[in-house]
Amino acid sequence: xxxxxxxxxxxxxxxxxxxxxxxxxxxxxxxxxxxxxxxxxxxxxxxxxxxxxxxxxxxxxxxxxxxxxxxxxxxxxxxxxxxxxxxxxxxxxxxxxxxxxxxxxxxxxxxxxxxxxxxxxxxxxxxxxxxxxxxxxxxxxxxxxxxxxxxxxxxxxxxxxxxxxxxxxxxxxxxxxxxxxxxxxxxxxxxxxxxxxxxxxxxxxxxxxxxxxxxxxxxxxxxxxxxxxxxxxxxxxxxxxxxxxxxxxxxxxxxxxxxxxxxxxxxxxxxxxxxxxxxxxxxxxxxxxxxxxxxxxxxxxxxxxxxxxxxxxxxx
Length: 316
Description:
The protein is mostly helical. It contains 19 helices and no strands. The chain starts with 9 loop residues before the first helix and ends with a helix.
């Protein structure tokens, strides 16, 4: 009430945020703090030129959201909050250090389907792509932005032409992130997930299939131990193969080695991961839809691998 009575006085908003922050460590205060998110974002939006207030507000929101996620509470922030966050992104789009924090906040917010939908509605995707292009070297920003893109693409409406056009612009940028951070497992995993979501939404064009397939194979080769990356990368490849035989042939004829051998290697590395086996089976199932590809897979004794998988997971 104290903050709401004096929106226009920056010092009141700053003191209010600082006082709310003092309750963060008190577990019994958590349900009350949850109700303060709108007040905090409105204070940030009202005094958008004050970087100190932005940082303090963002830090507090991160604390509240972290506790919410730990307790399994998904915060479905409404459209007005999404709008406030978008304005903050635009006002401070060149401040790398603050953006790094803000993008982490957006990633946590977008874990809620409703919040992701609201962020998409207010038109945040072009801003995310601009940030990625500008700070391609920053692994933290790339990790968070790709995670947000994944959430927004999954919540997207593929029948909406405007939405589709915006998401199509995300493909080259996400590919550039993956190329830049191939050896950073966490960022590569996030980018693979985003590419999977974009492929599911039909955002790739004919010219994207071959280079994107090669890039995803590189990600699998460079990060063999990351089960989630292998799973999501394989699902992304399956989506590409479903769309085009070009992608299936690119897996067979990859210049860095047989994609079929890579599939075998990944399965044997993750024998205890049913999610990985399932994703690889889905990929192989899409590949055998093309006769030429199926004949090649048969010559490479893929039936033996499939029999192994069947024995390993008889009840799945």
